[in-house]
Amino acid sequence: MDPNKVKGSQVQIVSERTLRRRIHALTGSSPMRYLLDQRLRRAQELLETIDLPVDTVARRTAFGTGERLRAHFRTELGSTPTAYRGSFRGHRSAALRDERPRRSTA
């Protein structure tokens, strides 16, 4: 069998339910919530440290488009990527040290 043609669902080491429970035990979150938090944290880091266009940050953090990144920022952080970048110019945020992304206080 060609391993490049095997779908992920056909290769199982543990059940999906077991995987979800283990991820939750390790992170305190569902797999999707944990993944979203990690992607948002990475987007925050890029916005704080590098002058990349929002669309590029979105692609690098698997949000796909700037529009989707902006929507998640508004929902999760109460800000836009551009406003977030401006409020953390030259500073590393405490949010990067926390488990979950945090809203800016600026």
TrEMBL record:
UniProt xrefs under SMART domains: HTH_ARAC (SM00342)
Entry keywords, A to Z: DNA-binding, Transcription, Transcription regulation
UniProt domain HTH araC/xylS-type: residue ranges: 14-87
InterPro entries in the record: AraC_XylS_family_regulators (IPR050204), Homeodomain-like_sf (IPR009057), HTH_AraC (IPR018060), HTH_AraC-typ_CS (IPR018062)
A matching Pfam family: HTH_18
Region feature Disordered, mapped onto this chain: 80-106
GO molecular function (one): DNA-binding transcription factor activity
Coiled coil: none
Positions with biased composition (Basic and acidic residues): 95-106
Superkingdom, natural source: Bacteria
Protein name: Transcriptional regulator GlxA family with amidase domain
